[in-house]
Amino acid sequence: MGSASGTAKGVPFHSPKKRYLHITSSTSEALVHSYAIFHVRANFPMKKFQYMVMAKGIMIFSSSEDVTWEGLEGIQTLSIVVAKEMFPRFTVVVVHITDAGELITDSIHISVKIQNAKEITLNLNQHKDHSKRTVEAGIRAPTGSYFALACSRIANYQLQVQHRITIARLMKASLRMEPHPRSVMTIKHRSRGGLWTEKVTTLSAENTGMWSLSALHVSGLNLASDAHVHHPFGTGKCNGELGFLECGDGSCYRQDEICDGNQHCRNGNDELNCLTTQQYVEDLREARPVLRSQGSSLPFCTKLLYKL
Predict the structure, then answer these.
(1) Does any domain span residue 133?
(2) Beta strand extents in the chain (DSSP E only)
(3) Most CB contacts within 10 A, which of 78, 85, 92, 284?
(4) Residue 51 within any structural domain of the chain
(5) Which percentage of the chain shows pLDDT scores above 70?
(6) How many domains are there within the chain?
(7) CA-CA distance, 135 to 147, in Å (whole number)?
(8) What is the spatial distance between Cα 109 and Cα 35, in angstroms, rounded to a whole number?
(9) SUPFAM superfamilies under this entry (predicted)?
(10) Which of 79, 75, 137 has the alpha carbon at shortest distance from 110?
(11) Mean pLDDT, residues 113-120
């Protein structure tokens, strides 16, 4: 048995004037056609703030909210209706520009779960044909329902081939549309014997940006404003209007260079938490011992292929 270890380091959000804007949510997993509740906190007086709802790199909704508290700090509650376009996750970004022209921002990522509003019943009858060559399928669903039925042999099903359409593959295809892959938090469940399809669960997470500009970049936004943005020492040299992002160590990289397999930052920040094809194949072999092959790079079993 091996051992593993790790380290954690907390870095405070960069704000020379100690002004912070923080958004949290009491909704851990949002449901389509329901409300998601958010709480915006600030430790400085303000009259209003702006917020934007982002999904797959597209702005779904934007508006401004008047502040109801009086004094130096308080909490404002928002309720946003979750639409199907926000699946499998969406981002809420809050932005405020102070009277001195300082831009303060924060964001949060919320996972979305789709509930099937129409109940579908499937019955299989293999006793009608005594030769066992055919199976009768009976599907009951409300009027206007769309459904698809696909069958496969058990040996083919255990291989979990990539051309089959599953909910997990639909979710991963939607998550690839996110402009910042490192902000996507997921949990994957796989069967070693291929008894069930892969299950992917998205997780809600708060912004990990260390200053205002990086917080906007994590949310998939670029800044086009004359507002003042405070930068930590060694940063602020990347031109966001030309598509350059901060590495955090003084160097820059382009947005299209994220997870391209080449290290463009000195600290490797542009290639962190990236899923490459080679990593996926190795993960697949480790998860399913039945697919391991000796002396061949193809993850197939000849015995199973012969049965097909």
Answers:
(1) no
(2) 21-25, 29-31, 35-42, 48-55, 58-66, 74-81, 89-97, 103-113, 121-125, 136-140, 186-189, 199-202, 205-206, 244-246, 252-254
(3) 92
(4) yes
(5) 84
(6) 1
(7) 18
(8) 15
(9) LDL receptor-like module
(10) 79
(11) 73
- Burial (CB count within 10 angstroms: exposed 0-12, middle 13-18, buried 19+), residue 134: exposed
CATH number of the domain that residue 46 is part of: 2.60.40.1930
Q: Is 277 helix (H, G, I), strand (E, B) or coil?
A: helix
DSSP 74: E
Six-digit token string for 296: 């061949």
Neighbours of 41 (CB within 10 A): 15
Kindly report, residue by residue over 82-104, the tens digit of the pLDDT.
998 898 999 999 999 988 888 99
CB 301 within 8 A of CB 290: yes
- Would you say 286 and 279 are in contact if contact means Cβ atoms under 8 Å apart? no
186 Cβ contact list (under 8 Å, min separation 6): 175, 200, 201, 202, 203
**What's CA 56's distance to the chain center, in Å?**
9
The three-class DSSP label of residue 77 is strand
- Asked if 253 contacts 247 with a C-beta cutoff of 8 angstroms, the reply is yes
| Residues written for the chain | 308
Within the chain, residue ranges assigned H as helices are 154-159, 167-175, 212-218, 277-287, 302-307
The answer to the question of residue 137 being in a domain is no
Contacts of residue 76, defined as CB under 8 A and 6 or more positions apart, other chains included, come to 39, 40, 49, 65, 67, 68, 69
Parent domain of 51: 21-115+204-258
